[in-house]
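In this section we walk through a basic example: taking a raw amino acid sequence and producing a predicted 3D structure, encoded as discrete structure tokens. The instruction is simple. Fold the sequence below.
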Amino acid sequence: MTEEIWSAEKSKAVFGVGRNDLHFLDITEDGNLCVKLGKHRITFQELVRSVNSMSENGTRYTSSFTLRIPQLITYQVKKLKASFERVFDELGYRGKFIGIYPVKVNQRKDFVTAVIRTDSEYGLEAGTKPELLLIKKLTENEKHRQIVCNGTKDPKYLKLIQASMDSGWNIGISIESVQEARLVVKHFKPQKTHLILRIKPYLNVEGHWSHSTGRDSKFGLSIHDLYNVVELLKQSGFAESVKSILGHAGSQITGLDAFTRFGSFLTKLYSELREMGLSNLENIDFGGGLAIDYAGSYPPDLMYQYAYNIVTGVKAQIERDSKRHPEPNIMIEAGRAVTALAALIVVHALELRSVFPTPGDTHESETARAEEDYLTRIHNANTLEKMVSLWNEFHERFGGMTLAGLEAIHVREMVVGKLETAVRARLREMNLPTYSSDKLERSFWYPEHIVIGNFSVFNSIADHVMVQQHFPVIPTRDLHIHPQSTVRLVDITCDSDGEIADFYRQHTEKTWFTKDNRPVTMPGGKMDKGIPVGVLDSVPGSYFVIPLVGAYQDAIEMDHNLLGDLPDVELRLKEDNTWGISWITGAESIEDLLKDAGYADIDVHEDPYMS
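The resulting token sequence is shown next.
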């Protein structure tokens, strides 16, 4: 298959569709993005038509919406448990797997209940009093589930825990400070208490939140406090109440070998604490850290490798300790890996804007001569260094502000657009091993087209702004066509941070380009700006999908510019293998948003997004 011949299969490779954590997406032969569960597919065009027909002329309706697929939570929970059980069988490991879902990742009822319905033994983690109340409500008839209570605990939080334990809930209390240990000793009874010692992991790992580990972490007992807490618990009769230790290596860990070291580290502490008198210690809670493959750059068996590395580390340390202690049960508080797949933002494209004017004749003679000179020099350039020098030179000459007037600006921008186009064409002809240079004033490939999407980055993908979390963006049509160019997707807020343009260029042996000579893949893979689209003129009125937003985004959304929640639509594959599409809620109304801001007397029931 040559580069010039395009197909849906090539778009799958470009966008990572159909593999790793986008395994539930597919592309039809005629270029339509679709959801795929098992052997059954439904295109986003069909989804949009159904949603439009259900909500036509309704209030609080907007053309963009959040698509929720709780069945993908079921899939992830089963996959995680199966991964650990497979590793246990392969390595002859005798401990048990205990899954714990941290509700902070997404507290929505449809998400938490999906976890509960999937596995009758799956536990839940609360980090605050409200989260514990939420968990109690959902497990009123299933009090056997393991509940882990993390977070800073004041007397009221502990009182709620005590009342819950007295009513039959199975709660483990994490201790993260000497003060918390003193409160527990004062208010609880040793025989009825399951204590968890949360310990700072004194090791470095690679990941988005690696700063949350090590001695400076806000979480867990420092080594000196650990000694003091153990001594306090032994003196007060609580030594046998300690059944678990907990260490959290951070979220979205990228170095898989770190989990082997982490497994060995916590197992060493497990053995030493048992020898210090905590003889009932039987569980190691490894917290979260299991990554979601937002960029499509991980191996396809990521979850299995995660499980294998942890168990390998645990088992190796047990053997180094001469097998003096039983192999511990392994508790995993994976949250992102459980819920991220289950929500997608479906963004309606309102319009397309161009950065440069349409090419035309350059009438002013001096500028025309300069343009011809640069075009000749670009054509003759044969190294990346010469091209970078030319690129910076003509941008410096024609860029910036001028007092020459509107017509002069128009001509100069037209010239820059022509010269940029010529540079990209020449770079492609040169077929260089790399196009990277730290001397560029402006990227060779920066998109020249802006798509206005009917959404708010701050409300739908707040992590993109807060912690620079990457999210994939995929057009829903024309995916069988050789991409014409790349675009930036911007929202309707009055904020320069309201855009998403990062796109991971997947690894291919040879770079693939758009029709206007912008790379869409690169040897080795690389993050860059510009979302490929098939036909620019077809973008207005079409849709883009932002998948993998089911973790944290619902919990941290912001009503920036008084743009509230998008409507929620649920998709499910029914038992008869037909698709069920349900309208859950409409967009958050202007009236409700204004009430939250203190304006109780403004009567506007409409949604705040563009019509």
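Looking at the output, two observations stand out. The mean pLDDT is 93. The longest strand covers residues 343-354. In the next section we compare this with other chains.
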